[in-house]
Queue: 2 jobs
Job 1
Amino acid sequence: MTWFYDPRATYEHNREHGPFGAFATPAEHAEPGVPEMDFLGNAVHRPFGIPAGPLVNAAFCEAAFEHRFDIAVYKTVRTRAHPAHPFPHTLAVHVEGDLLPDRAAPVLADDALDQATSISNSFGVPSRNPDEWQPDMARAVASAAEGQVLVGSFQGSRPLAQGGDAAYIADHVTAARLTAQTGAPVLEMNLSCPNEGTGSLLCFDTELVARIAAAVKEEIGDLPLVLKLAYFADDAALRLLVNATAGIVDGYAAINTIPATLVDAGGQQALPGKGRERAGVCGASIRWAGLDMVRRLVRHRADAGADVTIIGVGGVMTADDAETYAAAGADAVMSATGALLNPGLGAAVRRVSWPSFTAL
Ligand SMILES: Cc1cc2nc3c(=O)[nH]c(=O)nc-3n(C[C@H](O)[C@H](O)[C@H](O)COP(=O)(O)O)c2cc1C
């Protein structure tokens, strides 16, 4: 296995011993050049990087920067420690063609990761306590070279006791404040993982998202805030979300994953544990969905007359895929599965020029 995050080892093992593969060794030296593009007010060589997930701590972020991914998103953190789902989290998902959101038929998932172009991502958003992740995220921020940006991803947790929406909103505000204290120049709020206690995704609750976004922006002021979204099959709902939040936040990142029922060769549930019959799938089979979201976000942004950055995520396996996203209107592009399979993707993207990206 040559991936920099080893899916055949536990999340804890990765955190303690990674990164692996190409990220464990220094990148070839190359002249950095002058950063000439913009990413949410930050000069970058290319508005291209690795989204929340595979970069589980500062050592991974530093390696990503070193290997010329110019945006590194530090894996989503919380206000309190939270365990990962039982191992494994990442299996090869054998889906033919595009994975559609309403797919009823189960999909085969196994550990034949060497041939995979789509994988599962079922971690449960583990987090350490802030007193552990804050100094580590600050190290990640400091490891960005000129023309590179560390993004701090966070999410709110439902209160353990009673407290309702007010406590849930307050937890987002606390998470944002703790993340901002690390010096991260851009924050991303993950709205696309199961909203604990409801089984649905927070990003589909427009009214609550608008309240949370307003409270978080009130706390962090001018620091750019990006909302991480799931795939919206309902375009009217996406329009409502943009209309309700584009005046508050600074950007949208889409998409996270598309859920599917994953089974092993015997037809049994592939990932162990209750509630994991379905799991999020990422990689080549969801590219269509990320592109579709970017195109629709571009349209809704224009209709709203809003000035927000659109970050295209999903199935970017090559520099050509990144250009396709740029041509669809993405202001920035990120790759998780593609970067795992090809750690040279950042350097490959540095070699191409994309006129559709915003120059400084
Ligand atoms: C190993 C792994 C862990 C992930 N963890 C997170 C996370 O903590 N927070 C988040 O917002 N997205 C997470 N994601 C989703 C990615 O940010 C991205 O949205 C998704 O993988 C689609 O991109 P891709 O097709 O390039 O993989 C994770 C993805 C992977 C592969």
Note: The CA atoms of residues 261 and 277 lie 6 Å apart.
Job 2
Amino acid sequence: MKIFGDSISGNCLKVKWTADLLGIAYDWIETNVLTGDSRTQEYLAMNPAGQVPAVLLDDGRTLAQSNAIITWMAEGSALIPVDAFDRAKMNEWLFWEQYSHEPYVAVARFQVRYLGKPVSALEPKIVERGKAALQRLDEASVDRDFLLGDALTLADIALVAYTRVADEGGFVLGDYPNVVRWIARVEAALGIA
Ligand SMILES: N[C@@H](CCC(=O)N[C@@H](CS)C(=O)NCC(=O)O)C(=O)O
């Protein structure tokens, strides 16, 4: 399969890390969102959403949305709990990541690091909601190694992607000591420390 991804994007790195951990073979097609590579006619024909990541299978099928891709890749692996309730809890984190974490933590980072916006010029709602997301993660990781307990799941992979670089958006990770320790554990499990 081909993975279309931009190496600066946490959403894309989730897919790479999951494939690497599971030993899934792929060709990485670097797709620069800053220069509009995901908005060409050719790319839009494959993924009408005009975003990365996307995967193109050898049989021509395509799949987009980072958390949909990693869920498909990890089907049947230890990264997805067998128990239905635990699996639903993992999905709770995945949906929360896309609606209540990524739109703030990742967007702040993109605006500061890649668009050059001063942290002081960030929209207050982005900063407040980003801090709230980090606080929630800090509370969730106070008494457990990974978000669902003892074992790494897709919840950790999805959420570590932008949390580990939250500093680049002006957030102070040191204010969330449980998060700092959780990031180190997830990075070690993924071999990306
Ligand atoms: N919900 C999507 C978000 C994808 C997304 O926002 N991709 C960004 C890079 S992180 C992108 O492709 N931006 C370029 C554009 O929209 O033109 C996912 O999780 O895959």
Note: Helices lie at 10-22, 41-46, 66-73, 84-114, 124-140, 154-163, 177-190.
